[in-house]
Structures are given as C-alpha cells and as structure tokens.
Amino acid sequence: MVVAAFVAPYLLEATARFVRVAAELPGVRIGLVTCEPVDRIPPDLRERLDAHWQVDDALDPRQLAWAVSGLSGQMGRVERLVGALEQLQVPLAQVRESLGIEGMDVGTAINVRDKSQMKETLRAAGVPCARHALVRSAGQAMAFADEVGFPLVAKPPAGAGAQSTFRLDDGDMLRGWLAAVPLGDGDPALLEEFLTGDEHTFDSVTVGGTTVWSSIADYRPPPLEVLRNPWIQWTVLLPRDIGGPRYEGIHRWGPAALEALGVTDALTHMEWFARPDGSVAVSEVAARPPGAALTSMHGYAHDFDLYRAWAELVILGRFDVPERRFASGTAYLRGMGHGRVRAVHGVDAVQQQIGHLVVEARLPQPGQPAGADYVGEGYVIVRDPDTAVVEDALHRLVDGIRVELAEA
C-alpha cells in the first residue's frame, strides 16, 4: 500500500479529474490537501479519499509540511507528495526534501520553474534556446533591446501557460510595458529574443533519466498570436506520425534539455520552435501535465488515459508506453468582443460534415460569460487514423462556427 498526499488548492474541473484517477488507483491511499473545506469536495470524490487537510495557502511550504504531517497521523507515513499545477512544483519539492519523501528535488524544480535559470542551464549545456535577460530596471531592459533587437517577448520569471506574456514589437511598446510593470531588485521580469518559426509541444515521460515516451503537437497559430488577437479561433494538432525529418531535431534536443535540467522521473510539457532554416529552439519546459486539452488529446491519439498514467507515474513509479494509433486535434471556439455569448452560428452544418470524428466537445452556450483566457468559450476535439482528415476537420470547425458575444 502506497500512501500519497495530493495537493490541489482548488478543485477546478481538470484538477479534480487528476485527483479522481489518483484516488482510484489500486493499492494507493490518498489524502487531499486543499484550500477548501471538506464539504466543498464533490461527494463522489470525497468518498474515494482516505483523508483531507485544509490549508490557507497551498503554495506555502510550511503549511504543506504541516498538512503532510497531519495526514500521516491519519493514514500512515506519506510516501509520495504530488500535485498537477506548475506553481506547486517548487514548494512540493521543498517539502519532500525536508520530510525525506521521494520525488523531484528542489534544484530540478527550480530549473523547470524559474524561466531565467532554465534558459541559463539550457544554454550552458549547449541546448539551443532564445537569448534572454532577467531585467530589474528600465535601463537593463533598453540595453537588452539594443543588443537583441525587436520583437521581444516579456514574461514573468515564474509564469505558467503564457500568463502575463507579451510580444513587444518596438521601442514604444517596450516603454509602455515598462510603465505598466514595476521592476526592481526583488521584482524582475524576463525578456527574451522573439523566436520565429512554427511552434510545437514536446510532451514526454522520463523514467530513470531516460525519455521513454514522447508526443508532439502543432500550434496553429502560435500562442502569442492567439493572446494578441482574442477573436482568433485556433487549433492544436497531434499528427499520427511524429517521426521523419520534420521532428528529428526535437527528438534529439528535447531529451537533452530534460537531462540538462535534471529531470529524471516526470511527465513534462515542453514548448519549442522549428525555425525556418530547419533548426530547433527550445522555448520552455514545465514539470506538469500539459493544459489546454492536450492531456485529453494525447489520450485520444494513443487510446489510453494519460490522466491515470500520470498518477501511476508520480505515485507508483511506473509508466506503460502506449502505441500512437490516431491523429487528434482540438479547435478552440472564441468570440469577438465582450460580455456573454449571444449566439453560436454554424454548428449544425459543421456537425453534418465532421460529427462522426468528434470524441469530445464543449460548445459555447447562449448566456455564458466570455472566456477569461486564451482557451475561449468552448472547444471540439476530433480524431481519425488519418492526419489529413483531422486537419480538414479542424479547418471546418474554425471556419464554419462563429461565436457571437455581446454586452448584456
């Protein structure tokens, strides 16, 4: 019997799904650490838990250590301490080290959380990535812009999922960003060279320091363009075939980047660019399952449950490598403007064309508020053994469905 503590500050839908599959693993006792009282946990999940501990701040290592000690008194000594959110990885590692719990160490967690240190580590190891600078003043920012040129990318050193990330095209945009962002010795920001090319992901499982499974996805268009244009309906494609010369570079540099960062046993999410000259540049790495429906998409492409596979990896230390049997893709449906969804047009026509390919969907509903992030108001996931069929379905979805937003 393995005793594990799962930290999930709030049980949003995706997080609750990870907790659920962990709690269903045979031979595992699960204690849940949340910022919510036990009566806020959905009843079907609550009955699967062996214990619960509430904290005020799930990112505070001292509170997490207190919670783990409390759970140990209820279930027996906690042997695994896990969480699916990127922001948790450093505090979880700190508590593991202080309590002697197996898992990712603090040095590795910082390498994959602090974007500036990550870039320095990768460049020192010879892994191709964007030039960068951790800036603490307007002068440092201007000096980096003079050295590298525009466009630049500005982001927080510990950002996640393109949050607070901006493209700066010229000096005026840089000065505007500087006026809005408080810089200082204790509050730096990261500036990076803007990489051109096609943007992709490299999601992989590392066991004992060896990459045993990987999956590649294509962003269309790149996330920064999606952030800059809230009306764009964008897609993510997982081609069935990820071999051949197109992806040869990342199959070399992806595992090399993980080795340089110290990753030994983890599911990681990497973003990278295929440059126009065919070379590869690693953008950044996160030691967590991928977001934006990618975890589900990988499951559909390989006909397995990646949520459960992640739980087995981090709690039981095992991963059964699946076969890639399908191509899959997601179309994200987004409206132009603000307010709430007034209407959704074109669904019936698109349903007649590609409905047989749909494996999961959440269509925007009239009256729902506009999405607060780049995912938008809804999505549709499709799959087929033929990549071209999936690509065509994604085009039909984003071209044929229109989300109308309006102020109340």
From TrEMBL:
Q: Give the record's keywords alphabetically.
A: ATP-binding, Ligase, Nucleotide-binding
Q: Which domain of life is it from?
A: Bacteria
Q: Where is the ATP-grasp domain?
A: 119-315
Q: Name one GO molecular function term.
A: ATP binding
Q: Can you say what this protein is called? A: ATP-grasp domain-containing protein
Species of provenance: Petropleomorpha daqingensis
Organism lineage string: Bacteria, Bacillati, Actinomycetota, Actinomycetes, Geodermatophilales
